[in-house]
Amino acid sequence: MDRPKPPKPEKIRQMTAGHSFGWVDHRIKWFWEDMSREEILLYFFLITVSNEQGCSWWSSRKITKILKIGPAYLQRAREMLEKRNLIAVRKDEMSQRTIYQLLPLPIEENVRIEIPMKLNNRDEPLPEKHLVSKEQQKINLENIQKLRNILEKQ
User: Fold this and answer.
1) Engineered SS bond to 56: which of 23, 34, 50, 121, CB 3.0-4.6 Å?
2) Whole-model pTM above 0.90?
């Protein structure tokens, strides 16, 4: 299939030097399913406002106002993004502001890993067609261990 033509080819967006860091590594989509709405909001906000080193130091008050989330949701999203190794956070002693840094995605390039599909997030029985065989369970556990090993190297 050919690439679709943009609706307004005369208005194709260009990256201008020195004006933006905001690019998105498309592999982030591998994390979406397990991320909360607030995590996704914060991550994309940080991509938008970060400098060329991937750093940002917006105040928590301003971030919560722009994202329209409460401070507890911001704190939880920050903690989860840190736990997923998507961002690093440090408190600046002088300004008392939180310094955010976007990190490279914790997945090595050119390494294919099957990410196990999350089948059911409720406590209800799975439909028969979604039951996983013993062999597939073993493969899933091996893939989870591979992911853990990669994350530990970071």
Assistant:
1) 50
2) no
